[in-house]
Amino acid sequence: MKIAILSQDASLYSTKRLKEAGEAEGHDVRVINYLRCYMNITAHKPSVIYNGKPLESFDAIIPRIAASKTFYGTAVVRQFEVMGVFSANESQAILRSRDKLQCLQILAREGIGLPVTVFADATQDVDGLIATVGGAPLVIKLLEGAQGIGVVLAETHQAAKSVIEAFRQLDANILVQEFIKESAGEDLRCFVVGGKVIAAMKRQGADGDFRSNLHRGGKAVKVKLTPEEKSTAIRAAKATGLGVAGVDLLRSNHGPVVLEVNSSPGLEGIEQATEVNVAGKIIDFVTKNAMLGTIRE
User: Is 262 within any annotated ligand binding site?
Assistant: First the structure.
């Protein structure tokens, strides 16, 4: 089978592992820098051009689209879809997960547990906004943030007001969320592939940092999920339409709540913490569905 990994950097751990896993199973795997692609949009023979030549005969693609390049990256994914190529994550699913507000609204519609979250345009009633999420401490997030960047813990009411007003002066779109104190700086990364949780780890933030992202110095260990946590992760991935997803959960006093659904979850932390061949399971999912000609909604 001929598989393209859409990635800006062939040396990245996740990209290398996916290529190695595909080749280990006898597939022809090629890393394509999607930013160097352009698209011939036509009804008769749509194509993706790379280094001056059409990319042809691919059976499947595995998108690894950077958050900052979502618009162009998903356009390339969509063009492959127009050409009838199976994608591990379809363009619309990537867009749903990348828009944090839309993602939370989709999850809420499906009855999936979430932290109390508020989104507002005007800031005249900042006190009311803060009260809606239960008061300080609370978490303020930039909608466009990633890997823990643009996430602030406001420990007092006045600090929350100052941060919210500062962000709005910059015309930034923000979410205000309740702070789940009982999670104690820990979260769960559940790796969902093809509707199953194949691996899970618990991440603990660095000393003095409530964020648990590994990019911010957090540490990870293998964890056993409860049936409710597994179900929540699977439902979240399904609600956004992702075949491959990293679902981040917090353990709250009222059950698991979803923080985020990631369409390009990193493989290094999860493989090292769990010793699961996550890359191989992604390749198996892709090849199976590409052979079946599966099309997801």
Answer: yes
- Is 260 labeled as ligand-binding? yes
- Look at domain 117-179 and name its CATH class: alpha beta
CATH class of 2-96: alpha beta
Q: Which two tokens stand for residue 214?
A: 């590994």
Nearest to 97 by CA among 130, 63, 122, 120: 63
In one-letter notation, the amino acid at residue 7 is S
Q: How far apart are CA 272 and CA 221, in angstroms?
A: 9
Predicted model pTM: 0.90
User: Could you tell me the CA-to-CA distances from 206 to 24, 184, 185, 187 in Å, in that order?
Assistant: 36, 11, 9, 12
Q: Is 213 annotated as belonging to a binding site?
A: yes
Q: Is 178 annotated as a binding residue?
A: yes
Each residue's pLDDT expressed in tens, for the chain with a length of 297 residues: 999 999 999 999 999 999 999 999 999 999 999 999 999 999 889 999 999 999 999 999 999 999 999 999 999 999 999 999 999 999 999 999 999 999 999 999 999 999 999 998 766 688 998 999 999 999 998 887 665 678 899 999 999 999 998 888 888 888 999 999 988 789 999 999 999 999 999 998 766 555 555 555 578 999 999 999 999 999 999 999 999 999 999 999 999 999 999 999 999 999 999 999 999 999 999 999 998 865 454
Q: Is 179 annotated as a binding residue?
A: yes
Domain 182-284 architecture: 2-Layer Sandwich (3.30)
Q: Where do the structural domains in the chain lie, given as residue ranges?
A: 2-96, 117-179, 182-284
Q: Is 271 annotated to bind ligand? A: no
Structural contact between residues 241 and 230, judged by C-beta atoms closer than 8 angstroms: no
The reply, when asked if residue 19 is annotated as ligand binding, is: no
